[in-house]
Each structure stands twice: as C-alpha cells, then as structure tokens.
Specification:
Blueprint lengths: L1 H24 L4 H23 L7 H6 L18 H4 L3 H28 L5 H23 L18 H32 L6
This protein binds 2-acetamido-2-deoxy-beta-D-glucopyranose (3 copies).
Length: 202
C-alpha cells in the first residue's frame, strides 16, 4: 500500500513525460525550423528599430521644426496598425507581406543613402538599416522557400528628386517615422506568428 502511494508522483511524472514526447513528436516537422527563423527575425527588427531613430541625425528640437513634413514618398508601405489585420492571416501570407514591405523599405533606404551621400550627410545609420533589412529579407525569403512558397518581389518604387540638403533631411524624417511604425508592427506580427506556429516561449 505504502509502495503504491509513494510511486504515484513518479508515475504521474512518467505520464507527463510521455505526453510531452507525443506532443513534440506529432508536431509538423517544419514547425521547429519556422520557429528558428521567426526567432532570428525579431533581433533584426529590433536593430532596424534602433537605427530608424538615427536616420536623420537631428535632435528633438530640430525635429520639431520639421514636424509638419508632408508625405512625399508615395510608395513607402502604409502599415495597417490594427491587430485584427493579421489575426485572419496564415503564416505564409503574413511572411509574404512582410517580405514585400521589407524589400520596399530597403529600396527606399538605399535611395536615401545616395541622396545623403550627394549632400555630404552622414550615411552610417542608413547603411546599418539597409544591411539589417537585407538580413531580414533573406531570413523571410529562406523561410518561405522552406514552406515551398515563392516570395513576392516589391515593385521598384517611384522616387522623387532630392534637390537640397533640406529635402534630404525631410525624406530622412519621413522614412524614419514610417520605418519605426513598420518595426513596431513587424515585431507584433512576428510574435503573433510564433504563437500561431506554437513556438516555445523563450
Ligand atoms: C498559404 O498556404 C495555404 C495552405 O496552407 C494556401 O492555400 C495558400 O494559397 C497559401 N498562400 C499563399 C499566399 O501562398
Ligand atoms: C546623386 O547624384 C547622382 C549624380 O549627380 C545622381 O545621378 C543621383 O540621382 C543622385 N541621387 C539622389 C538620390 O538624388
Ligand atoms: C508601437 O506600438 C505600441 C503598441 O503596441 C504603441 O503604443 C506605440 O504608439 C507604437 N509606436 C509607433 C511609433 O507606432
């Protein structure tokens, strides 16, 4: 009697282990690999978020003077901030969308680097952002490839002429703000996709 009583927790433990084993092994095999990809994308987004704030190199006071900047870059992605927007989506569709946005931002940033260079403005933050956007894009492309999906290419954006230093600063501010919103949205999307794919919490 005593023996059975003592072994009860042990048996319970075994049952839990078996249950865990069944659950892990019945998971679709791609699930752990998509989790790896999603986990690597988040730090890239965080780096881009940090760099987005420094694209223009302006202080808060200087920014205030540029606050009423018109939106002139028509092809910069418009992000729908509402959560409902991505709860209805599948992982493949969300990643395709993220890929198109990432590419579009990279094309805009690369254009900005040239414009900044032309007017002898610092290009390092934009170059950093471009490098991390490329890494993010590659990670998304590879994970889509593993899901046997082809990634959609962003169409080449139409870009205005940057005619003065002031112009370039305005464009930097516009891209900086939009990139920030994009990073915010991407981070939430990636966390959502982690839940959808039942990725272990870290
Ligand atoms: C995503 O995958 C589903 C099947 O899981 C498929 O029906 C759908 O067409 C795919 N979407 C895209 C954009 O490839
Ligand atoms: C930078 O200058 C080059 C040479 O003048 C010009 O072709 C290019 O369009 C300029 N880039 C931007 C983004 O203004
Ligand atoms: C980022 O998202 C949070 C909520 O998730 C929101 O409060 C904040 O205003 C957002 N920031 C930007 C710049 O979109």
């Amino acid at each position: 009697m005593k023996l059975i009583h003592d072994s009860a927790p042990f048996i319970l433990h075994l049952l839990l282990l078996a249950e865990l084993f069944v659950r892990t092994s019945s998971r679709p095999t791609h699930s752990s690999s998509i989790c790896g990809f999603l986990g690597s994308m988040i730090p890239q987004v965080d780096r881009i978020m940090m760099l987005s704030k420094n694209l223009h190199g302006l202080s808060d006071d200087e920014l205030l003077n540029l606050a009423a900047v018109d939106n002139r870059l028509d092809d910069l992605p418009h992000i729908q901030q509402t959560a409902a927007h991505f709860t209805s989506r599948k992982v493949n569709e969300s990643l395709s969308q993220l890929h198109v946005y990432t590419q579009s931002f990279k094309l805009h940033i690369d254009w900005l680097i040239t414009a900044q260079f032309n007017f002898s403005l610092p290009t390092q933050p934009a170059e950093g952002a471009s490098a991390h956007l490329l890494q993010l894009s590659t990670l998304i492309h590879t994970s889509l490839h593993q899901m046997h999906e082809t990634s959609t290419q962003a169409p080449p954006p139409s870009l205005p002429v940057a005619a003065s230093t002031f112009d370039v600063l305005q464009f930097s501010v516009e891209i900086s703000e939009r990139l920030h919103v994009f990073c915010n949205w991407s981070r939430r999307l990636l966390r959502h996709l982690q839940k959808l794919s039942r990725c272990p919490r870290r």
